[in-house]
Design brief:
Elements (H helix, E strand, L loop, with lengths): L1 H23 L6 E4 L6 H7 L5 E4 L2 E4 L2 E3 L4 E4 L6 E4 L8 E4 L2 E6 L2 E3 L4 E6 L2 E6 L8 E6 L5 E3 L9 E6 L5 E3 L9 E6 L5 E3 L9 E6 L5 E3 L2 E3 L3 E6 L5 E3 L2 E3 L2 H30 L1
Parallel strand pairs: 1-2, 2-5, 3-6, 4-7, 5-8, 6-9, 7-10, 8-11, 10-12, 11-13, 12-14, 13-15, 14-16, 15-17, 16-18, 17-19, 18-21, 19-22, 20-23
């Protein structure tokens, strides 16, 4: 009958419309709060979906965190209020391995004998506004390309503030790597990286080191009061331009002593001349 045929057509149209709706309704990215939805950062990561954002409330956390999916991990109130200490010192505090498209923003990561933040074969990772003191290395990139490190503070580590090994096409901008027991920023076999407006002061060895690293751009960095400022070894095609360096203490000190010696000589000579002239 006509009514049955119309009903059949309406059902077909509805079915097609539902199919289109189901195809278009991809799950929206969620925002997850640690200490509200989950008690630990790792639990939040494990239960998150790709492209979710995890907001971590202020406080101190004792964890080793593995970021295993593309998401944004962000502290609510910045690195001074959100501190993560390594539960196992032999592992990084934050570890991202063999993945792309994640962000770690606004944490303090400390007390790891490996690194505060470690990228292993990772790409398109954003590290921003983090502090990584009191680790073996502050931030370590191994075979990790196309990452952006901005406004991180990697001071007072046992070896190096920021270490790149076999890592290419990364951007390091406005980071600090001060008072580390060996080097501030160290590139080993790492090419085509851009280092601009970073600060690497008072490190016990080198401020910025390029070791067998080619075609990097090192510009407008402040590199002062290290044993050596900027060192290139076995490296070609690098642009090192307009960096603010100050001669290290080990060179300044002998010059100061020489001037002091000259001044003392003339003072003594003046005193002796006055003494003998009176006689």
């Amino acid at each position: 009958s006509l009514s049955l045929e119309m009903t059949r057509k309406v059902l077909i149209v509805l079915f097609i419309a539902l199919m289109f709706c189901s195809w278009d309704s991809a799950p929206e990215a969620a925002t997850i709060y640690v200490r509200d939805n989950y008690s630990s950062i790792q639990d939040a990561i494990d239960n998150a979906l790709a492209e979710d954002t995890i907001i971590v409330r202020e406080g101190e956390y004792r964890e080793n965190i593995r970021v295993s999916k593309p998401l944004t991990l962000k502290s609510e109130k910045g690195p001074d209020k959100t501190i993560v200490k390594a539960a196992k010192s032999g592992e990084p505090v934050f570890y991202i391995s063999e993945m792309k498209n994640a962000a770690i923003i606004g944490f303090t990561a400390r007390e790891s004998s490996i690194a505060g933040i470690y990228l292993n074969k990772a790409g398109n990772i954003e590290l921003k506004n983090n502090k990584t003191p009191q680790n073996r290395n502050g931030i370590f990139l191994y075979s990790s390309n196309d990452n952006i490190l901005t406004n991180n503070n990697s001071n007072a580590n046992d070896l190096t503030g920021i270490y790149l090994e076999s890592s290419h096409n990364n951007t390091l901008e406005k980071n600090e790597a001060n008072s580390n027991k060996e080097k501030g920023i160290f590139l080993n076999a790492s090419n085509n990286n851009n280092l601009t407006h970073n600060i690497a002061n008072r490190n016990e060895w080198n401020g910025i080191t390029l070791w067998v690293s080619n075609n990097n751009r090192v510009e407008k960095n402040e590199v002062m009061r290290n044993t050596y400022s900027i060192i290139l070894s076995g490296s070609t095609g690098n642009v090192v331009n307009d960096n603010y360096t100050w001669t290290n203490l080990y060179i300044i000190l002998p010059i100061i002593l020489i001037y002091i010696g000259i001044i003392m000589f003339f003072i003594q000579r003046k005193i002796f001349s006055l003494f003998y002239s009176e006689l």
